[in-house]
Amino acid sequence: MQQAHGDLPPAIYQHPFKPWLERLFRICLKCSRCERVRPDEPDSLARLFQGYYPMRRSTLIIPCFNEESRFPVEPFLQSVHESHGPDLILVDDGSRDGTRSVLNRVAEQCPTRIQVLPLSRNQGKAEAVRQGCLWAFSRGAETVGYWDADLATPLSELTRFREALNRQPNLELVIGSRIPLLGHAIHKDPLRHGMGRIIAGSIAWVLGHGVYDTQCGAKLFRNSPAMRSVFATPFLTRWLFDVEILARLIVMSRTKLVPSLEKIVLELPLLRWDHIGGSKVKPSDFFKAFVDLARIHKHTLGQHAAFPISESPSIGWRPAA
Hints:
Blueprint: H1 10-13, H2 18-30, E1 59-64, H3 73-80, E2 87-93, H4 99-108, E3 114-119, H5 125-138, E4 143-147, H6 158-167, E5 173-177, E6 185-187, H7 190-207, E7 218-222, H8 225-230, H9 241-254, H10 261-264, E8 265-269, E9 272-274, H11 284-299
Parallel strand pairs: 1-2, 1-4, 2-3, 5-8, 6-9
Antiparallel strand pairs: 4-7, 5-7
Helix pairs in contact: 7-11
């Protein structure tokens, strides 16, 4: 049975330097930096503290593909140096430019807080995010999320996402929503906004829930059995995987594994969102979205459709090639 945080791990009692380790251990428990303890690092004293320290702060997955010329280095570095800033997993999705070098240079400036996950070939945003989430789950992050690399949603919004999860223990997932409300700075491209609303209406109809914005690239969720199951198997689509996340939760709610979607998912209106040029989304993707939506309706939400419920990929996880 796990001891309380005020007790000492057995390994310390058996260690010849017990008095010094005891003092170090109690200091760590009082210090916010105990969230940085990593028992998976073999040379770390943290191996003595495994199971006796708080879970780490939020981990954000940042999927990157050919972002060499526009990756916002400074905002990410600034965020990890803040007292409650997130850990970052920068996923290079088989980029063909110098993205990996840029990401490695960023990680070198704060190696305890920033990790690079290189994929040998381009697998699409869905798989890049999924691989990053599995890694974050396996490392014991308390909450995991993903954020678009262009920071159209500023990292300052993350605090509001975490507060929403803290206020409502029943929530599994918080999704950013680009609702143009008075007093909110939501700056969209008019053409893409119009096309997006057509798709959004179709998505809400297929899901059977009044979701305003599934495609905002800012989401945060718990490291829970439900969310680990959602990410355990590859998604059907490359770009509508956000819809698949909700669809999988709906399937789980049908079998009473989780409560209904309204009780576990919250749409959080963003205070700020800026359209950033240079997106990888092409006009043809507008039409592909309807094909992908039909696939989700048939293969995930259909009468006899289901996805395997398993947490095993997050245990002993290794990155895909």
